[in-house]
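Page 37, top half.
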Amino acid sequence: MAKELEAKRKISISAFFPCYNDAGSIALVVQDAYETIKKITDDFEIIVIDDASRDESVKVLKKLKRQMPNLKLVLHKNNKGYGGALKSGFENATKELIFYTDGDGQYDVKEIKRLVEKLTNKVDIVQGFKIKRSDPWYRTLIGKLYHYTSKILFDLKVKDVDCDFRLIRKRAIDTIWLEYNSGVICVELVKKLQMKGFKFAQVGVNHLPRLSGHSQFFNYQRIFKTLFELGQLWWKIVVFKQNGIKISK
């Protein structure tokens, strides 16, 4: 029992969740995170980044905050995109470790325990990968094409760059500058951390059917924009060798 209590005091975790029109799932995600993380450590915070939702998400979150006063809400007045929501999450996280996943419930936040178990003194990022994607066939196909294209273009070492289920040391995040406000930020994040020499571990996680709402990515306009920005990122990082490292003033 003493060893268990000592282990709980050794780490601190910021868990944040980007939310956009996730009124049907975000409360369960937050509650599951709270119940799970408090068994791992006594030193943690939970943050939700609402990216100007047009449904009842903010209403749900404000009600949840009355029940959970230590819940931190960051409410965007204007939609900043998925990458913009992630950047707000990283900026508002204050603990040693940062965990994030989406607010739509397609990942089981209780599986954060799998990430923590993989963390060692030699590991800086624990990256999840989908054991099996629980999506329609066309989304699975597009997801695989996106992953393999990104993997080849950027020489990525992870199994699933599109799996937004990550545990990252804050000191690693604090060394890089993230530019993109779209989903391209995931490739940008992994590549820049990889370029800095931070060490990754990987673990399989379950991917679940969406609890409510629908994906914001799968329309022609967003797919075209994502591919354009992916090419732009490749040009900056691979051709011009821009590393996105923060420079201290």
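Page 37, bottom half:
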Amino acid sequence: MTIHSFAVLAHKDSPFLPLCLDSLTRQTLKSEIYISTSTPTPYISTIAANYKVEVVTTQPDQGIAHDWSFALQQAKTKYVTLAHQDDIYLPNYTERCVPASEKFNDTLICFTDYSEVTARGERRHTSMLNVKRFLRWSFMPIKKNIQSKSAKRLSQSFGSSIPCPSVMYNTDMLSNFRFSGDYTINMDWDAWLRMADMIGTFVYVPQILLQHRIHSDSATSVGLGLQARQREDLEIFGRLWPKAIAAILARLYSQSYSSNEG
């Protein structure tokens, strides 16, 4: 029985969508695959037909948080990964993440390390990647899981260390979970903080199992250009720290954004 799904988050006509689907069909442990979109187009329909995957559609112009929540709700399997349409999942992603999650009866999310892909090729070491790896190592130096609410919350107190596209969600534990529309960039960081207050385990697989594409049209790149990411970082740090410390952390954290330039 299939225990895992990939919900591919498709927005308009990404030229990278076929590469993403190629990577999902080549997994060593097979999963269900479906495309979730609020911007259905003939291009998406054609690609879906070529790969023999279902397209589920939600209403447009409701925001990214709504689109992610909708995609999550469509899963019929215990685990689901919200696959970003521009990214590539290495063949053993599912094979590594499912058993790691199944070791615990209360896994909330399982996530992995990742590299970046630009027009110049793959990058395994950038300021952003190194910062996130340091944060994950700091809170999970030996045991690659954390369960207590305080430890999970602390793990997110110095920045969003969990790579969003790599996350495998346990729908049994998160059946009522919704991403917050209060954010346009940091829906994921807000989600990890709210999950930290839930009963359950965060599981980390410390291998690079995802290639995250960096390009000028990505939501992160657009958000950085509009300064939305910096504003939202400061707001979330402000939930965790006194105002003066939050401002310092937000300023330091933003220095790693230079690596988001392709």
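Margin note: Residues 4-260 form a domain with the Spore Coat Polysaccharide Biosynthesis Protein SpsA; Chain A fold (CATH 3.90.550.10).
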